[in-house]
Every structure is written in structure tokens, then in C-alpha cells.
Amino acid sequence: MFKILHIDHIGIGVNDLAAIKDVFGEKLGMFHQPEDEVVEEQKVKVSFFPCGDAELEFLESTSPDGPIAKAIEKNGGRNLVQHIALRVDNVEAAIADLQAKGVAMLDKAPRYGAGGAKIAFVHPKSTGGILIEICEHPDRKAH
């Protein structure tokens, strides 16, 4: 059995990460990590903005065939909320429990995402069309 601890982050696909960092960092005054992270496997450049117990995760595609580029294209070229991430205490147990309940998973086993998190995505057909990421940060305590 697994436990959802809290909303970890909201993933937002963007066309121009530098412009978004200017809006949220400079204009709105939100703190963000000074360095962006590139996740080659997912073809994205990522910037996190902590907001209370959660974060805003802005994702810019590093390739025209990346999942974020495709999602933005499907959205008429506009930025979009791409996923909601739920922090869990054990991502492997979450995958097993969800599959046992008939929930379709995009990832049958965890993989590594930004910040070294163990992640897996739930198929949107099982969640009313909403892409949900389950994630575990082994090196961080729950809020």
C-alpha cells in the first residue's frame, strides 16, 4: 500500500523558458533555482519555482519531437498545464497498487526525472484525461 503525501508540483509546458523565468522570477519575485536542468531522456529543460509545499515546474522542449513540444503543438502552440505530480512515500508500491486496481500506467516501472526523483506517469485514460505523475524524492523529507 502507498500513501499520497501532497501535491509535489504542477508541470507547465512552455515555449520560451527564459521569458517565463522573467515573469515568475523577476516580475513576480518568486525564487527559482539559478541553473536549469536538462533531462535528456524526456527531451526537456526544466526550471523549478518553489511555492509553499509544492513547486511550479516549467518545461521547455529541447527537441521538436519531444513530448512537451507535441503537447504544446496540440494546444495550438500555447503554453499549457501538462501534468500534476503527487508525491508518494513509495513509487514502486504506488505502481503495483494502481495496476492492481486496474489503473493504466504509462510507466510500468519508475524512471528518474528532474532532481533525481523516481517518477512514473499514470495514463490519462484512467484519470479523466488528466496526466498524473507519481513521484518519490528519496533524499527529501515529506512536508
- Which parts are unreliable, with pLDDT below 50 for 5 consecutive residues or more? none
What integer value in Å does the Rg equal? 15 Å
Give the tally of β-strands.
Answer: 8
Q: Helical region count?
A: 3
CATH superfamily grouping: 2,3-Dihydroxybiphenyl 1,2-Dioxygenase, domain 1
Main beta-sheet annotation: 8 strands, mixed
- This entry's quaternary arrangement is single chain
Q: What is the CATH architecture annotation?
A: Roll
The CATH C-level class name:
Alpha Beta
Give your account of this protein's structure.
This protein has a single domain, classed as 2,3-Dihydroxybiphenyl 1,2-Dioxygenase, domain 1 (Roll), CATH 3.10.180. A hairpin with a 4-residue loop joins strand 2 and strand 3 (44-51). The longest helix has 11 residues, at 17-27. It has an eight-stranded mixed β-sheet with strand order 2-3-4-1-5-8-7-6. With 143 residues, it is an alpha+beta fold. Helices cover 20% and strands 36% of the residues. It is globular, with a radius of gyration of 15 Å.
Fold topology:
Elements: E1 4-14, H1 17-27, E2 37-39, E3 44-51, E4 54-61, H2 67-74, E5 80-88, H3 91-100, E6 111-112, E7 118-122, E8 132-136
Parallel strand pairs: 1-4, 5-8
Antiparallel strand pairs: 1-5, 2-3, 3-4, 6-7, 7-8
Characteristics of this structure?
143 residues, alpha+beta, 2,3-Dihydroxybiphenyl 1,2-Dioxygenase, domain 1, eight-stranded mixed β-sheet, 3 helices, globular
